[in-house]
Amino acid sequence: MNRRDFLIFTGISSSVLAYIQSCSSTGGLSNSRHLVDTPEKREQYLAKLLKELCTDLGPHPIGSPAMKKAEEIVKREMERSLPFVELDTFTFERWVLHGEPELNIGDRKVESYPGHGTLGAPPEGITGTIINIDDEGGIIYGVQDTNEEIVAYISMKEYIKAVPLPFYSFKKTVKSLPTFHVGTENRSVIEDAIEKLTPVKLYADVEFFPNTPTSNVVGTLPGKSSDEIVFLAHLDTVYNSQGANDNTASVIVMIILAHALSGTQPKKTMTFIATTGEEYDKLGAINYVENRKKAGTLQNIKYIVNFDSLTWGPNMQIATKDEELRSLIDTIDRELKLDGTPTLLDHDGFQLDARPFRETGARAMYVNSRGYTNEIVWHRPEDTPETVPVDCAEIGFRMFYEYIKRIQEL
After folding, report:
1. Cα Dmax for the chain
2. To 10 degrees, the CA torsion angle through 259, 265, 268, 269?
3. Given pLDDT bands bounded at 50, 70 and 90, which one contains residue 5?
4. Which option is the CATH number for 3-83+222-407: 3.40.630.10, 3.40.50.20, 3.40.50.720, 3.40.50.2300?
5. In Å, how far are 37, 40, 243, 406 from 32, measured between CA atoms?
6. Pairing of the two strands 301-307 and 225-234
7. What are the start-end ranges of the H helices in 143-282?
8. Is the pLDDT reported for residue 396 higher than 70?
9. Which fold has domain 94-209?
């Protein structure tokens, strides 16, 4: 079995068994448990990788040079603990914003972020007036020109500050009309502009680059059976944010779990995927699932855990409809006496990056968190390592390290 074939590994072939037996007999299996075997070491490891992936790289959206460096860092760390690590590379059409966007209402500049994947505005800008619209994707404002045609959108969600949101958040396609997202702090400014027919001007220098490479980072620890447990955490960020909480800290917790399992052969195969493109319509997860389908191995995935922002607070939000898994989480929390109170949400767990895996029929969990106020930095430049609560990362590690051990027996 070559390394590329192992990228979509799901069964234990004779060659892999021979490899494992050889390593076991010689002590050759990678063992990096010493890196994370105490809470203090896990805290140090978290800080080290947050610096490398966030402080040093800055924002790393899908397809960017910074994302390429992030992929290599995660690959390097997985190779310290897992015998098979690969970059699952594919190409897509990359969206890039050059310079600062502008949304001017009269003589007032309003903070805004263009939706990634949407069109930009020409050098002369887009001018018009704002009107209320009833859009199927939930966009509530349109900019109309002198011909009363809608030439751009202005969206507003529940967030106080402006945040970038992708095209698919509003049921749009790539290269749909320019869409500028603003915060609720500017609602009165916009409503006043509608009433007074105040002229507006929008500008964003956007460019698309076809055939841009990007990669999932996939690491696997072969088990004694082909039954597979998959952990997902998206590595990409939005274009304006270092993404320390969303979702770099969660990726690091996943890597720490891989270190904690290193040097062992579990009953079930363990696969850890740092995905690309979650912020761009789940492109990485979709590509990975397609590869598995082509190989005829997708159905070997029996369990999925999707980490998405584990550090907004100590109260984990766990979505799954699987009653046995819900009971298991309750039991682990009670026995470990973890800080915070997990909330079990009535959802099947196939959210965001896990959505393409629904056809596996696997037992899925989507894991988020709540409890502190640092979620106000979501999709914002302020989402830096300094805002990451170490205790939340530790809670996530302890809960799911125990989960992995117990799930081996189901």
Report:
1. 79
2. 60
3. low
4. 3.40.630.10
5. 9, 15, 26, 21
6. parallel
7. 187-196, 249-261
8. yes
9. Glucose Oxidase; domain 1 (3.50.30)
